[in-house]
Amino acid sequence: MADDPYRYFRVEAKELLDELTKGALHLDKGVSPAPSATEMLRHAHTLKGAARIVRQREIADHAHAIEEVLDPFRDSSDAMPRDRLDAILGLLDDIGTLIKQLPFPDTVASATSERSQPETSTRTIRAEIGEIDVLLDGVGEAHARLGALQNELHGIERVRELASHVVSQLAAPRGLEKGHRVNRENSEGLQSVASELLSAVATFERAVSGDTEQLDRELGDIRDGIERLRLVPVGVLFTDLERAARDAAHAQAKRVVFEGHGGEIRLDVHLLTAAQGALQHIVRNAVVHGIEPEDERRAIGKTSDGHVTLEVARRGRNVVFACRDDGRGIDLDAVRNSARRKGLLVDDSATLDSSELMRLLLKGGISTSGAVTELSGRGIGLDVVRDFAERAGGEVTATTETGKGTSVKLEVPLSLASFEALAVESDGVTVLIPLDSVVQTVRVDSEDIRASVQGETLTHDGNVFPFLHLSETLSDKTVAPRMHGDCSVVITSGSSGAVAIGVHRLLGTSNVVVRPLPSFLSVSPIVSGVWLDAEGNPQLVLDSDGLVSRAQRNEHQVRREADVASLAPILVIDDSLTTRMLEQSILESASYSVEVASSAEEGLVKAKSTRYLLFLVDVEMPGMDGFAFIEQTKADPTLRDIPAILVTSRSAPEDLQRGIDVGAGAYVTKGEFDQGKLLERIKELTVR
User: Fold this and answer.
1) Sign, Cα dihedral of 636, 639, 640, 643
2) Euclidean distance between CA atoms 514 and 246, whole angstroms
3) Are 464 and 454 contacting, i.e. CB atoms less than 8 angstroms apart?
4) Distance of alpha carbon 454 from alpha carbon 463, whole angstroms
């Protein structure tokens, strides 16, 4: 690949343009220009110098022109006139266009079908993410090798034991052995060598053990840092969105204040890149169709400046972008008339309420503008928003209130997200709860937890919260384990209320990068995703809305008792908590009652005390494996007629044959897992 002379200039120039744009938008609020003008002058001067180094005179001239506009205001307290701000923003737009037109090396250009098109910052970001992914894979491999090295240390312990044994044997008086006298001088020499060996091994063991522990911690920190680099704070979009709002308002002689909230939330750059265009259309629509002109706003008692607010928040497995304005609201009669002209409504359309008309508007192709302009009139903006929501697997909704404004919500599934989480442990299982949903952690007396017809509740500080035992919630036990004495409680809030979660221990907080679970799985609503720890082990991340919903529904009480009573439970046996919960969720969604065991040994104990409909068994487990479990159940006269299904990642022909030989009714490989086929096979095996 040929060298790119503008590689670093592109990055620096984009950052300087962003800072200059932020400064100009800040000055547009009518503030004293001196502090911002001084800072902007530094950025413009830096950009001018960098452009001259790479011989981009036109960019340098534009940066110099910005300096000329700003210089008179470095000591001024008067607001900068709008025409000066327009001049600065126009120069910045021109510079941005010139940067995009910078040529790339021929070897790069020839490798793409877009040779004639300028490279964008989005593609640069994606290239950097690819490099980050490679680096992340390398760190993961190094971490795995470190784990192997740590295992090798156990061999050093054995060498030390042997050396210690040699020293003790040589030190003991031995007299005659098999008719030969021990040479005392040789014995003392061997004893000295063995002692030296023992000391050297001990020193080596201490040094390597300390180094590997430190390396393990550092690699874990690096891995977490690299994963967070893949994520970008939402706030990077706010400058462009504020500029879009400002330009739309300026074109219509309006004044608008844009505010962004939730900018600290970090999301996958691919999601943000895809969402950016949709959000620009939403913000622009809010200004063009919602915000009234200044004189109209003052006449009805509103502030001269319209307000457009974008709030970004996580909601379980999704992220929500909510754009609100304080304008006139959507003209629903105009929506109705436009839809009628396009043949989308029949004559009785007057009966449609506001929510139905808003849904019709979001379907696209309808505009409330009286004329086609550069900004509006064809109804295309909402088409872009809707198309993005559909491609991302989300949805867009809108509400409006005449005279008060409109709210548009864009909700899409998360690909990756980073946030602070509280780690808690119950019955030896560790899970994470998003820290921003944690209201309080307290120690309470178990006597404060009371049973009622609605389920268990906790009274704390005068408030009554639904109560869930975390161990009960994770294992779906039908009888809650009674806590005694003081216990730790996490009070968690969701969109529909709050719930108290009883746990055994609070383990502390950390920043985690959360991945969604596979879409083909029917996942429990209390789980929002999974975090991989430093060793690659999955840790479940709970969803606060799901926890609140579980408590409010009192799921154990409202389960269809007739369906449960008609069937014996299925026993799921797997040493992985994640796999147990996923399989349990799939089966329960099909109305099966489920019990779980974390080992084949525990499964055998349960099988001898409870009658089960079917065994769903993992193959590879510590201790007894799945093959041996089925062999033992088939050898037991009371269990031999209970069908069993093996679920495993092992797909070799000999493994399949062994599954058949031991009497498994089906052999499901995880790589080809299909929950529909699994449920169908269970039905075939259990219907008598």
Assistant:
1) negative
2) 35
3) no
4) 16
* Cβ atoms 76, 33 nearer than 8 A: yes
Cα 323 to Cα 405: distance, rounded to the nearest angstrom: 11
3-state helix, strand, coil in the chain (%, to 5): 50, 20, 30
Buried b (16+ CB within 10 A) or exposed e, 548-578: bbbbeebbbeebeeeeeeeebbbbbbbbebe
Distance between CA atoms of residues 394 and 319, nearest Å? 9
- This prediction has a pTM of 0.56
Question: Which amino acid appears at position 677 of this protein?
Answer: K
How confident is the model over 299-326, as pLDDT tens digits?
999 999 999 999 998 887 789 999 999 9
Residue range(s) of every CATH 3.30.565.10 domain in the chain: 253-413
Amino acid at 506: L
106 C-beta neighbours (distance < 10 Å), count: 10
**CATH 1.10.287 placement within the chain:** 124-229
pLDDT band for position 575 (50/70/90)?
confident
Specify whether the CB–CB gap between 597 and 572 falls below 8 A: yes
Model pLDDT, residue 475: 66
Count helices and strands (H / E) in the chain.
Answer: 22, 25
Single out the residue of 28, 27, 66 nearest to residue 48, CA to CA.
Answer: 66
| Whole-angstrom distance, CA of residue 495 vs CA of residue 161 | 60
d(CA 262, CA 239): 14
Could you tell me which residues come within 8 angstroms of residue 206 by beta carbon, excluding any fewer than 6 positions away? Answer: none
CATH architecture of 559-688: 3-Layer(aba) Sandwich (3.40)
Task: Could you please state the CATH topology (level 3) that the domain comprising 7-119 is classified under.
Answer: Four Helix Bundle (Hemerythrin (Met), subunit A) (1.20.120)
User: Who's near 174: CB < 8 A, 6+ residues apart?
Assistant: 182
Residue 147, burial from CB neighbour count under 10 angstroms (0-12, 13-18, 19+)? middle
406 three-state secondary structure: strand
List C-alpha distances in Å: 355 to 4, 332, 352, 404. Answer: 54, 10, 8, 16
Cβ distance 633 to 641 under 8 Å? Answer: no
Place of tokens 């025409």: 83
DSSP character at residue 447: G
CATH number belonging to domain 253-413: 3.30.565.10
Give backbone dihedrals phi and psi of 497, rounded to 5 degrees, phi first.
150, -160
Homologous superfamily of domain range 418-558:
CheA-289, Domain 4 (2.40.50.180)
| pLDDT tens-place string over residues 137-194 | 666 666 666 666 666 666 666 666 767 766 676 666 555 444 444 456 556 666 676 7
Q: For residues 507 and 423, is the Cβ–Cβ distance under 8 A?
A: yes
What's the fold here for domain 124-229? Helix Hairpins (1.10.287)
Quick one: how far is CA 353 from the chain centroid? 37
Q: What residue spans in the chain does CATH classification 2.40.50.180 cover?
A: 418-558
Both tokens of 185, joined, read 């001088």
